[in-house]
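Workshop exercise sheet. Pairs work together: one partner reads the sequence aloud, the other fills in the structure field after running the prediction. Swap roles for the next sheet.
Pair: D.N. / O.F.
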Amino acid sequence: MTPLFGLERPLNFGWYLLGSVIVIVASVIGQIPFTVAIAFKTMASGKGLPKTMKEMLQVMDLNLSLFLLLLTFVVAFAGFYIVIRFMHKQTLRRIATSRTQLDWKRVITAFSIWAMLTLIITIVSYKASDTTLVWNFQPGRFLVLALIAVALIPIQTSLEEFLFRGYLMQGFAQLHPHRWFPLFLTSLIFGLLHISNPEVEALGYVVLFYYVGTGLFLGIITLMDEGMELALGFHAANNLMAALLITSDSSIFQTYAIFKDTEKPQLSLELFLPLLVLYPSLIFIFSKLYRWTDWKQRLTGPIVIPDPINNSTL
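Structure field:
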């Protein structure tokens, strides 16, 4: 029986709730510049305040909106670091991996595989005769977009991974002695937190299955690999490619991307292609690359928490 990585001693779950509240408060503080900018812009234009996330994202210049939106995660990450460093007396490395240091080769491998696959799928889609993708490339605006995205999106995705696949995974481990419990709960919460995304507004709540499934995929590769390096790389590639390659009126990232999808949002099997084909394929590839074994134990087995005081397990 192996410990859930990062856990050093049992802590009351209340501390994890308090830590989560602090991160949420930091996130709200980080949203202030975005909210104030929207308020000033709408007052200057004489229009009413936007009521949906989609409307909010389209009030200002898209690059400015993206910058202010991502700034929220920078402030939230600062709050998260304070929680880890001063409340839990842990390091980010202990939250992220069971290895002695973060394995950047794993991060780069996952990033490269998903970024390349996304690029190939996008090019094939653009070349298709019935494509709804149109050329949207504006060099000056795209350059600014790229600078913002490369600098800030990894912070946004890293915060989500540290919070869900690390911190909350460890927190829920205090409530139930088996690994399936934190895996299931973190995936569910991760999915439900996307409920205000424009895609959900356009297509309905069924889209949340995609987000919950993505959380489950990220949780599986984290537990099987005893670290979140693969999840960090995948998530960064996914959001970065989403911001740079394709935009649409129903996506959370309203950007000056290279392509714009003009199709009216509609539910289709293609939406769930990652859940049905791509994610299982990636799990298989990673399992061969890193020689994963003991699947039942790592995904559903008992959680053993080492006690550093007397070198026993709890």
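Discussion prompt: The mean pLDDT is 88. What would you look at next?
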